[in-house]
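Take a sample.
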Amino acid sequence: MFFKKNKKKETSSMANGEDTKKLDKKELIDEAENLINTIDSVSGDERIKVLNRIGSLYFEADKIDDAIKYYEISISENKSLGKAYTELVKLYNIKRKEAISKKDDESMKHYIEKIDSLLQLSKDVIRGRV
């Protein structure tokens, strides 16, 4: 009764093809590779943004190891809480769950330690030690 009008708008916008189009994995990887070529030409905050964007593109393309690599570089260059930090926690948890399902104790411990180090980083940032 109250939400009838909103439902009509949703269905009409979807029928018109106005819903956001997701890039396919190849396009995401291509965009990430193009950005990788620009990393050396940027510095400071712009470099961090590029590294985070590359990590994000790889994450969307389900290239978890590559996403982790670029987010870790971003965190090592700019020790602050933000997108790289939150995405790394998600990625480490994905890898930890994969290790659990494969019954790989070493990998599981590795990613638990990685998560612990991120937790320590967050404590250090909050306390102003970094």
